[in-house]
Amino acid sequence: MLKEQLAVPLLVLHVPGERRLNEEDEVELERWLRFEFQLQNSDADVLFRYGSVPSVVAQVAEERRSELIVTGVARFNSPTDFVLGTAVDYLVRRSPVPVLVVKRRPHRPYGRLLVATDFSDCSVQALLAAAELFPDATLRVVNAFHAAYEGFLDRSSTVDFIRGERTVHMNEMLDKLPEGVRNRTESAVSEGDFHQAIFQEIRRWNADLLVVGSHGASGFAQATIGSKAADLLSYAPSDVLVVRERS
């Protein structure tokens, strides 16, 4: 379904690890993969590579000039992954392209994309990347805020003030989008816990896909994709598209 929606060639990459399979096992495994993913009558390529799963995936994506990496739910695969972050974390930091983390079997094309934004260049890049990948989808951009206020302040006034400021920032961001993207984008500013607000929007709006930006960096100090992006990736009830910020 995703292949048809994107209208691009499909490469199925299988990385068994360091230990090589013999030719007979590769043939049998390819037959099973084509059956499992319903590719018997497809022109999709099936490729076997060996080594560290996330590094091999990122390398092949760069070699093939892929537009998107599609993977399953993040998990710890080995002690090495634990040190570096999850395999998906590694992909997000090293991948030259967006990473789509699939949590559910598809029932329909991605038609309703929820984009979490903090108005940064990173989140704008994520929005534009998602709009380019899925040119027929409707986009809903959401900013969530927590209203911290002192006891002597009126809560409703504080919430209204912050919401007003965030709405101004939202409109300024939307005004800078290309017209074709802006015309299919709606927006919302929600008060409450960031993650809960985003998850509620996913369910309320029946979103097919959550889109988040990630500040990519290398080195142990920046080994994770950021607490907000990581938590959204782990707990979101929908599939998640993670787009690394480009300098």
| Number of E-type strands | 9
| Helix/strand class | alpha/beta
User: What is the domain total for the residues?
Assistant: 2
Shape, principal axes of CA atoms = elongated
At the first level of CATH, the class of the largest domain is: Alpha Beta
Task: Classify the fold: give the CATH topology of the largest domain.
Answer: Rossmann fold
Mean pLDDT across all amino acids: 82
Spatial separation of the terminal alpha carbons = 32 Å
Rounded to an integer in angstroms, the radius of gyration calculated over CA atoms is 20 Å
Summarize the SSE layout with pairings.
Blueprint lengths: L1 H5 L4 E4 L8 H14 L8 E4 L4 H11 L5 E3 L7 H6 L2 H8 L4 E3 L10 E5 L4 H13 L4 E8 L9 H21 L3 H4 L2 E7 L2 H12 L3 E6 L12 H9 L3 E6 L3
Parallel strand pairs: 1-2, 3-4, 5-6, 5-8, 6-7, 8-9
Antiparallel strand pairs: 4-9
Helix pairs in contact: 3-5
Explain what you see.
This protein is of the alpha/beta class and 247 residues long. The protein folds into two domains: 2-101, 3-Layer(aba) Sandwich (Rossmann fold), CATH 3.40.50; 112-244, 3-Layer(aba) Sandwich (Rossmann fold), CATH 3.40.50.620. The protein is 42% helix and 19% strand. The protein has helices at 2-6, 23-36, 53-63, 79-84, 87-94, 121-133, 155-175, 179-182, 194-205, 227-235, and strands at 11-14, 45-48, 69-71, 99-101, 112-116, 138-145, 185-191, 209-214, 239-244. The strands form two sheets. It has a seven-stranded mixed beta sheet with strand order 3-4-9-8-5-6-7, sandwiched between helices. Strand 1 (11-14), helix 2 (23-36) and strand 2 (45-48) form a beta-alpha-beta unit. The two termini are 32 Å apart. Residues 76-85 and 217-225 have low confidence and may be disordered.
